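Anyone have tokens for DUF3352 domain-containing protein? Sequence:
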Amino acid sequence: MNRNVWLGIGVVVLLVGGWLGYRHYRANDRSIDAFIPPGALMMLASDRLQDTVSAQALRNEIALRQLPVFDEARQRLDRFLYATADTATVLQFISGRNVRYSLHTVSRTTLDYIFYIPLTETDQSFLQRLTNPDPRQYRVLNHTFSGEKIFDLVSRANEPVGSFILTDDFLVGSVSGILVENVARQMHRPLKLAENGSIIRVEGKVDADHPAGVSVRPEVLQGLFSDASSLVRLFLPESLTLQFRPSASRTHLIGYAVDEIGGRRDVAALFQDQTPQRIARPDLIPQTTASLYHIGISDAARFGRSLSQLLGSASSDFLRDRFDQIKPDTKPFYQALDRDVLLCRMESATGAQRQVLILPGRDGKQLVSAYQRIAYRAGATAPAPLRSFLGHKTLLLNVPELPASLFSSLFTGFPQSWITQHGSALIVANSEEALQDYLQQVQRKAVWSADDRQAEFLNGTLRPANFTAFVRLNRAHTTVPTTWPLAWQNLLDQPDPATGSPALANLENMAYQASYGNENIQSTVILGRTTRRASRAVLNKLLLRKRTELAAPLVAAPFATGSLSDGTAPFYAQQADAQLSLITPNGDGAIQSSTDGPVRSNALAVDFLDNGRLQYLFMTDRTLYIADPGQKPGSTGAVSLQQIPLPAGLDPTYLVRPRGSRQRSIVALATHPNGQVYGLDRQRKAFVKLMSAPRKGPLLLPFQIMVTPDGMDILAAQADGTLNYWRETGTQHPHFPVKVERQTEDEPDVRFAGPALIPPGQSTLQTITDEGQLLTLLTNGTVTKRTQLYRPVRSGTFRLLPDEEQTNWLVLRSTDTEVAILDQKGERRFEVRALQSGRNSIRYHRLGAGVELVSIKSGSFTTLYDLNGRIVGDRPIPSDFPVVLQFDERSNELYVLSSVQRAVNLYSIRVR
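Reply: yep, here.
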């Protein structure tokens, strides 16, 4: 065979080899992995994200499109597809296609998606419309980058809609042109570089039972759990590859994953030989729980030994030293535990942590005793006197971070331990107020086991696990947690064009569960909501729930003695001749002995009689009354009504609870017009003088009560410009009282029309003169800042408007017929005009779950406003007296108790 023949064969072989190599390259080029740029934070895959969902289904079920991250991906693809075709054409093109989405960092504060749509031979007509859109609306430009042709879709106003690349098998696009150029660059990298592990893949299947799959990079998980004091991120696997399916109730989507343990062996050792458990005591979880951490244990002794090893090698010097100190007493404590360790962080209007640690025990007394011995070994002072509340003996153990010393730094946030025993469970709270709030919820059955939907969530949606972390979102004024990275906040806080609210507003419950084996971590991510949505026909409508007719007109505002939402709360109503009636849910009224005049004050719930029930204190002009709604022995429907005479001249309009007071017998505070503060002593059954202002004159209400490590402080202003700042002992802080003086002779004398406040978490005093000069003072009485607010032509009076629990404040500018609500910097939020002169009452309400309202009563009607000035409810509420407001976060309903003439009405308003 001559040389030419061999040369020809060689050429053929080279051509065949080249063709085969090219085919191999193109085959890889057509796979998704060849398109994804390095550094993807997350990969999504779904064939149903663009599906339409009926409004009725959206109210009763959770749809994939309603979840954050998924919703943001859907919006970006919708904006691109619907720019060039009608709805029917787009749905015909996209239905049933398994579309992938990768999330990437564009800048320090911006994240964006790339979408990857598989193509078939039948898509040519749609692609023709995409590359040749209606010239009256859009046009397509193109440029070449890294050897790939990139199309840029822009509007006629040159606003970019998106960029895309067309291959034989995929349509790859993004709103960000930079990301599409990164795709082009990735397509021409050598395969070994494209497969260097810097990309992540969706390995889970997407089928009829699994509408979506998600893969997440480990640094993303750590970034979203960025709180340095939290160990939650240590319970998470290093990466997650989830397959989602609907829950049985269709209210949640559940993502399952099985990942290698990797660097989580220390945590896995903690749960070695511990059978995953369900939450066994939902009857102890309060309704206002905003976040919950649960550790399920089946062998308490083994768990205690494993935890001792973990704490003995803790990275925190404080925890390691503390555990070495208490270790001799920990063994009986761990052995006394039962199946649950529960940490509840309850809803807080101030943002302050209100935490309760719930420890069911095999023997409650043994568990409480063991905890006390550990506290005393850790340095707690001599036993404090026992207090009583709702039939529970409560005790202060003044030692910091004891729960963290026993269960790891996940349980930090306890500067002290307020403890009590409830059944066989030890209850530990980080403040007395948190403990009392917890006991009230448990007493009135405001717990998870009494809520059908929450019980179904516990027993059906959640699964047995070693560790559960639960968060109820939208529990504050903002929906996006401020601890999240700014890029994630910007991504998730974008409003949906269809609803006007971010997708995160659709998400109520978020849970992560983990069970640890020898090699793998079985993870579950649960996303959804237990609250039913209202149809737009019901949303924001004022609905009359119940009307109770009375025999005579009311002479004072009614007050409720429980939760209005469950329909079981009775209320007190005072009718003509000062007869006080307790109205039961079925409308029956038990008439009490007549009081000596109309009720002037608010009603204060206090365990005054130490009988395991709450009593209600209120004042007439001459007497304080104690109403006990419990029945007397041998009587039916009667209510005990005791009375205590008021000191001569005591102001009967305001009662307040002495939060933080070390004087266990003082249960309420009131003021005297001569500048004195009186305390109600339940042992002596009399008012006793606690504090006196050097300058005679009424204290402006409400005065502020602050909990301090030493007990209780009181800050009170007087109209002549005097600020008083008392300790609980009755002495004033150094440099107080302070008389604020004017700066120049041209200014009017400083006078106050409202209170002074120290905002929670701050160390400066805030107040405002009646002429509108906003003052900031240090706690030594020095004025550090004066800001004169805008005064309209009509003269008006300025004052601070604190909420009813003194957790926050606004600024109020009022005349006889107009009010303006300002923020804390004096910027106008909204105004209300044409009010009835002399018949106005303005109150600021913080109701929890981020619901903040201002109620303005003018004449015989009350109107509710949110802080942006939008009216809540479709019409004013008839009311002869200020209304009572409660918010039920389970149903998103606002309840309003109002009185008019001879009737008391209960209204509800469904809010978003």
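The chain has 18 helices and 50 strands.
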